[in-house]
């Protein structure tokens, strides 16, 4: 299932960051609730909105959890929001959306990215057929065919990201399989690393010694905003403006830091490109 790594030129960078990759739980389902007996043994995450790293094969093998076949489960855990990494193929630009095929070495799946804002059009203009991309989106089914409605499509600029993605897939798969077998909930451990292992040429901005936090890493400060008990349960997530206001920084700096945190798998967009949630909180 996970032998797609040989298909990619990942440069073997994943092993070097193994401790950071596996020490946290950024992608792990949070606050699960076991359903009563007779419901198929499906474990539901809070709103099934926790972002899970998956392969195309896992999506195609996912079971359907209700009669209308609108929900899916992987390893007994309900899932609707996923992250995929693969090569873009057959990109077709239309009036209101862009459609393409994502090939991750384990299979292929259709992806739609609606262009509701100028930023959506700009984002899709940066990628083309043959590029490796990171897709965050909702898993949907129409007339029996599974596809992804993308919230974001970002170009892979460091091929270690591909290796990291497949390592995350393996880690989450093993954790969910273990939890299902033992009848316990998947383990979620929050720590200071937040699963961050950014490559040297993709560093997020940090505050200088004269900044608001005496040089504290800005990514940590932004993550603290997303985990603030006052904001964590907002239906649509935390906005860029709220982050900027809380930290007394510019909207541009807040957005660039949030973009970095999306790329390393700590945040994901919700209703638009201005609202986000932490993958740890779902």
Automatic annotation (TrEMBL):
The record's Gene Ontology biological-process terms are:
DNA replication; double-strand break repair via homologous recombination; nucleotide-excision repair
Q: Name one GO molecular function term.
A: single-stranded DNA binding
| The keyword DNA-binding is assigned to this record | yes
| SUPFAM superfamilies to which the protein is assigned, alphabetical | Nucleic acid-binding proteins (SSF50249), Winged helix' DNA-binding domain (SSF46785)
Superkingdom as given in the UniProt entry:
Eukaryota
Identify its protein family: Belongs to the replication factor A protein 2 family.
Return the protein name.
Replication protein A C-terminal domain-containing protein
Classification lineage: Eukaryota, Viridiplantae, Streptophyta, Embryophyta, Tracheophyta
Name the gene that codes for it: LOC123137578
């Amino acid at each position: 299932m996970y032998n797609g790594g040989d298909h990619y030129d990942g440069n073997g960078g994943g092993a070097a960051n193994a401790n950071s990759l596996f020490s946290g739980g950024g992608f792990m389902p949070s606050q699960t609730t076991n359903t009563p007996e007779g419901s198929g043994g499906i474990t539901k995450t809070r709103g099934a909105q926790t972002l899970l790293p998956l392969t195309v094969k896992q999506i195609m093998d996912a079971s359907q959890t209700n009669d209308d076949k609108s929900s899916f489960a992987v390893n007994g855990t309900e899932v609707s929001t996923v992250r995929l990494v693969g090569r873009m193929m057959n990109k077709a630009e239309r009036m209101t959306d862009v459609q393409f095929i994502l090939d991750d070495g384990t299979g292929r799946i259709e992806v739609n990215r609606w262009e509701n804002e100028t930023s959506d059009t700009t984002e899709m203009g940066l990628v083309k057929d043959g590029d490796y991309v990171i897709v965050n989106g909702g898993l949907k089914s129409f007339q029996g065919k599974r596809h992804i409605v993308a919230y974001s499509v970002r170009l892979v600029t460091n091929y270690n990201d591909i290796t990291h993605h497949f390592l995350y897939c393996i880690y989450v798969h093993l954790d969910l399989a273990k939890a299902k077998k033992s009848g316990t909930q998947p383990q979620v451990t929050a720590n200071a690393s937040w699963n961050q292992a950014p490559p040297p040429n993709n560093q997020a901005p940090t505050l200088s010694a004269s900044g608001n936090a005496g040089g504290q890493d800005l990514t940590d400060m932004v993550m603290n905003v997303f985990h603030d008990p006052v904001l964590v349960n907002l239906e649509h997530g935390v906005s860029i403006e709220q982050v900027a206001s809380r930290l007394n920084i510019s909207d541009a700096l807040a957005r660039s830091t949030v973009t970095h945190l999306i790329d390393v798998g700590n945040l994901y967009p919700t209703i638009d490109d201005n609202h986000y949630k932490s993958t740890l909180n779902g």
